[in-house]
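Blinded run. Sample ID left blank on purpose so nobody reads anything into the name before looking at the predicted structure. Input follows.
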Amino acid sequence: MATALPKNPCAPLPEARKMRLLPLVAFIFFCVSGGAYGIEELFSASGPGMGIALLLIAPLIYAIPHALVVAELGTAIPEEGGYYHWVKRGLGRFWGFQQGLLQWICSFVDMAIYPVLFTSYLQSLVADVAPGRHVLLTAGPLEFDLNWFICLAVIVAFTGLNLLGAGRVGESSVLFGILCLTPMLILTVIGFAHLIRNGVNPVGELTSSPGQSAWDAFGDGLFVVMWAYCGWDAVSTVAGEMENPRKHLPRALALSVALIMLSYVLPALAALGVGRDGPEGWANWAEGSFSDVALHLAGPWLQWTVTIGGMVAAVALFSALLASYSRLPYALARDRYLPAVFARESPRRKVPVVAVIGSSVVYAMFCMSSFADLIVFNVFLTNLGILLEVAALIALRVREPHLRRPFRIPGGWFSVGLVTVSLLGISVWATWQQYVSEGRQAVTYCLVVVGGSFLLYFPLARRADRLTRAAERETERGTESSRETAAV
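Blinded prediction complete.
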């Protein structure tokens, strides 16, 4: 008997529950950024001048090209599962499967970062949360300390929010955006007052040291800004839960690019006024250093405010990306690659309940430090996903020229060529840099993950075909039975 799938999978949500324009902008903001928290090492690596230049250049060569691809494909194929469906339609089932499965696997490590980041911010506020590593529970080789239980609490809370639907996640993202951007706005105002009062040029030094060339500074920082501006396609997987995606998605992407760029550049310029030296100086910046800058500029009250803002950003990133990534196993299950249970939806809200909870369970396990080294395959899988989307864009332009495209990348094939060259060049460069920094370990992990996904496709595709044929036979028998009953 064929595996049963949920009835009426495409039943529309009530408009009141769908994600409107402002929540959609906030949702994209947290899928990509979360604010300036975490970009501090860009300036210690590349210097003030080059760091600001990279934050302004990266949108032109990386963020905007990818956002254009997402806008065209997302409005042409606005389906739940997003880029999985783009690649499947443009390049075929094999590559669609790779896109869906590999990006979901990539999320296992990526999503574990945010609860851990929340815990690290919490530790900076309450020094005795977990001084050292006190193991509270063991299960074979696994050890669970207090930090892990805090991460688990975060995951449980925001899994509950996600079970209310992507619309509610988008609405909460508006509130989270206000809470995490307000501290940076205060820091920006105080920092610019400091710059003007003291006559400081925040970008007076181009590189981090006199011996560093401009090219080396550019290369050292490009990797950081790539992470700061990646993730534009994440919004596509919840297209079925947006209000009028064909109209709102391009607008939301354009607004988000501007908002994210400003949220990086303005606080960074203001913070650079503290100068090069000292514990708060930009030469010593690492992740979380904006809290030290806040302490220097205004005292403990602003330090606490900025730190709390970082905590809010961390959980909001987790919440938005959980909504995005959990739609991948849902889409794979709808195509019968994964067990049908992953396609189950809540009857009222049409949320893929099992996919959300199952993803969260995996993320909780990956919050343990023993999995930290696995992050080396993230860069490769992320860039592979982007290149598959570009290839799907080109294939659909050729194979389906009459496909309805409410948004179309302007400039014809010339612009598509520029987008392709830009994203291909940066992706290849990032992969090479990862190999240089990580060596064989990165190559080994990537080969294992990608090779395993390639091999897994064939038995799962045969299973999906068998179940589909069985379902079709059952449908035919049901139709014949109905006809016979009607004839009698």
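Unblinding after everyone has recorded impressions. Confidence is low (pLDDT under 50) at residues 6-11.
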